[in-house]
Amino acid sequence: xxxxxxxxxxxxxxxxxxxxxxxxxxxxxxxGEFSATVDIPPDFPRGPATIIISGSTFDExxxxxxxxxxxxxxxVGLTVTE
Length: 82
Fold this sequence. Notes:
By secondary structure, the chain is mostly beta strands. Helix content is 0%, strand content 37%.
């Protein structure tokens, strides 16, 4: 898939449904490659957290996608320590 110029992903650190970090916007290369730095606020809770990436053309799925169409969710778990 070739991503059009100006495509961005949004990256967010999530501790739970009520505590998130500020969103970081990352430019996406034509081949889909990107990198982002997520700042962890000093008062962010320590312990399990999740990085969630959104903005991909595969994020939004129809309730009943046609055969051969897949959706993807991009997230990774981590532990916030001191």
